[in-house]
Amino acid sequence: MSREILRTKTFVADAANFIVDLARKALAERNEFRIALSGGNTPRPVYTELARIGRDLPWEKTLITFGDERCVPPDDEQSNYHMACQALFMPANVPEKSVMQMRGEIDPQIAAQEYQDGVDLLATQRGEQIYRHDLILLGLGDDGHTASLFPGTAALEEIIRRVVANFVPKLNTWRLTFTLPLINHARHVCFLVNAAKHADLIERVLKGDLKYPASRVNPDLGKLTWILGEN
Ligand code: 6PG
């Protein structure tokens, strides 16, 4: 695994350009771009910028998955799918067939199994054991969680399944999330983080403190990039 750290005062532009560059590379090599979106607040302006500079990307050749989802309906303000629709899918006219929504509105266990079946089908159709994303975007929570892999939760210890439902006691709620086996199988993983918010935590994670789930993201045969927005 190779790792690069980009500290930037033009976070949104640099992150959006990073994604477009990887998209063009994947499309040139495999005529397809497989990206998993992260949720929360940090990526929203990046997706808006991506919709602006990436309007001419062949979105019909892009497969968009979600690294995690809240267990809420798709029109809920808390939904990562809802945020991505507003910031990216609608402005960039991304076709529905390019987006795989995690169904937060149904039973979490069923939704996780359904999503894992979908990802596994994509892998089988491409002759892969485990679906290999070209790019998985991740965020960093203030407890060092990433996707919905929270400290001390069962999903963090999952070594076989690709997608699970994960109960998060601190939030008293269920989440749907990629597991480390799926995340670490990506060609490229990129953390998008507001460094001003998490300066100390970032340093501890970068030093590999395994107390923090984000420290366990190490793509086996891929690259890891941290894009850190600085004021
Ligand atoms: C989610 C995310 C989560 C997020 C971090 C950071 O569904 O909330 O996937 O892992 O990336 O909590 O969130 P902010 O970008 O809002 O700080």
Structure report:
- The protein has 231 residues and is an alpha/beta fold.
- The chain has one domain (2-229): Rossmann fold (3-Layer(aba) Sandwich).
- Helix content is 30%, strand content 22%.
- It has helices spanning 11-30, 44-53, 80-89, 108-125, 180-183, 199-206, and strands spanning 2-8, 33-37, 62-66, 68-70, 135-138, 163-168, 173-178, 188-194, 223-229.
- The strands form two sheets. Strands 1-9-8-5-2-3 form a six-stranded parallel beta sheet, covered by helices on one side. A three-stranded antiparallel beta sheet has the order 4-7-6.
- Helix 1 (11-30) packs across helix 2 and helix 2 (44-53) packs parallel to helix 3 (80-89).
- The longest helix is centred in the first third of the chain and has 20 residues, at 11-30.
- The relative contact order is 0.19.
- It binds 6-phosphogluconic acid.
Care to give the gist of this entry?
Helix content is 30%, strand content 22%.
Oligomer: single chain
Sheet with the most strands, sense and barrel status = 6 strands, parallel
| Overall 3D form | globular
CATH topology: Rossmann fold
Count of separate structural domains? 1
Helical proportion, percent range: 25-40%
The helix/strand order is EHEHEEHHEEEHEHE
Indicate the low-confidence ranges by residue numbers: none
Could you give the distance between the termini? 29 Å
The total beta strand count reads 9
CATH class: Alpha Beta
Structural category:
alpha/beta
Strand order of the largest sheet: 1-9-8-5-2-3
